[in-house]
């Protein structure tokens, strides 16, 4: 908006300088409205130096982003209260909340992949690892594939699949979804997060546009309750209203 107004005012000044479309037109305009030239100069000065519309939009965006983050933290706090009821209790700094959205790249131009847009964790460990899954890979990938809530007791799964032969046999027998679409090597990389949950974020048409995932070292059964899912789904619904624009 600022640039458009500045452009129009600048074009007006240039047209005045070169008497476009004619000198008579400008003479008539300035005779009837002597303030017009001064107005153009003021518009160029104000919108060139202060960009008021851009500044206002920037402030509103920051305010909206702060409000969304506050809502995320509120829901995260309630999830943590449920997680603390696990036996043994989940440490405050262990629970992680991640917000994912679909992105496309040259490598994945059609179906895209999930990009981690934000991570909330009250501790500095464990370190968040790089992960950009496609549809059907990982708990978040299964959430995308099914467009529904998904939870996996990874700790229990890892206790049974202790070597590659057992893992491959289980995958062949039960299908890729039974091991979250992972290979043995990838499964070993994620097995330390023993309880993982994901719920879809849907746009206005009900289409999957991203998801929220929560992970911890253990405690799947203690967190897999209505109170926990209520907080997760409420957060997903709130994020869906903004189409993930204010993260």
Describe this structure in words.
The chain is of the alpha+beta class and 247 residues long. The protein folds into two domains: 2-50, no CATH class; 61-241, Beta-Lactamase, CATH 3.30.450.40. The chain has helices at 2-17, 23-32, 35-49, 52-83, 138-146, 154-160, 164-174, 184-190, 220-223, 226-241; strands at residues 96-103, 113-121, 150-153, 195-202, 208-216. α4 (52-83) packs antiparallel against α10 (226-241). The longest helix is centred in the N-terminal third of the chain and has 32 residues, at 52-83. The chain crosses the membrane at residues 35-56. Keywords: Membrane, Transmembrane, Transmembrane helix.
Strands in their spatial order, largest beta sheet: 2-1-5-4-3
What's the order of the H and E elements?
HHHHEEHEHHHEEHH
- Summarize the main sheet: 5 strands, antiparallel
Poorly predicted sequence stretches spanning 5 or more consecutive residues: none
Task: Write down the overall geometry.
Answer: globular
Strand content: 15-25%
List the helices and strands and how they pair.
Layout: H1 2-17, H2 23-32, H3 35-49, H4 52-83, E1 96-103, E2 113-121, H5 138-146, E3 150-153, H6 154-160, H7 164-174, H8 184-190, E4 195-202, E5 208-216, H9 220-223, H10 226-241
Antiparallel strand pairs: 1-2, 1-5, 3-4, 4-5
Keywords: Membrane, Transmembrane, Transmembrane helix
Transmembrane segments: 35-56
């Amino acid at each position: 908006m600022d640039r458009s107004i500045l452009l129009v005012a600048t074009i007006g000044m240039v047209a005045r300088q070169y008497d476009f479309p004619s000198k008579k037109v400008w003479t008539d305009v300035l005779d009837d409205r002597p303030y017009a030239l001064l107005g153009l100069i003021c518009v160029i000065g104000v919108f060139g130096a202060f960009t008021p519309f851009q500044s206002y939009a920037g402030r509103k965006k920051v305010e909206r982003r702060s409000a969304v983050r506050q809502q995320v933290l509120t829901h995260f706090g309630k999830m943590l209260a449920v997680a603390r009821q696990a036996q043994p209790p989940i440490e405050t700094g262990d629970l992680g909340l991640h917000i994912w959205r679909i992105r496309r790249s040259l490598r994945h131009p059609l179906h895209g992949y999930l990009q981690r847009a934000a991570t909330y964790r009250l501790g500095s460990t464990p370190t968040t690892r790089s992960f950009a899954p496609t549809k059907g890979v990982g708990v978040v990938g299964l959430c995308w594939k099914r467009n529904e809530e998904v939870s996996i007791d990874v700790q229990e799964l890892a206790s049974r699949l202790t070597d590659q032969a057992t893992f491959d046999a289980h995958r062949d027998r039960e299908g890729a979804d039974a091991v979250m679409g992972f290979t043995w090597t990838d499964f070993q990389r994620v097995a330390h997060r023993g309880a993982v949950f994901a719920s879809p974020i849907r746009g206005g048409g009900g289409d999957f546009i991203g998801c929220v995932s929560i992970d911890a070292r253990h405690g799947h059964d203690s967190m897999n309750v209505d109170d926990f899912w209520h907080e997760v789904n409420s957060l997903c619904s709130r994020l869906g209203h903004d189409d993930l624009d204010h993260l």
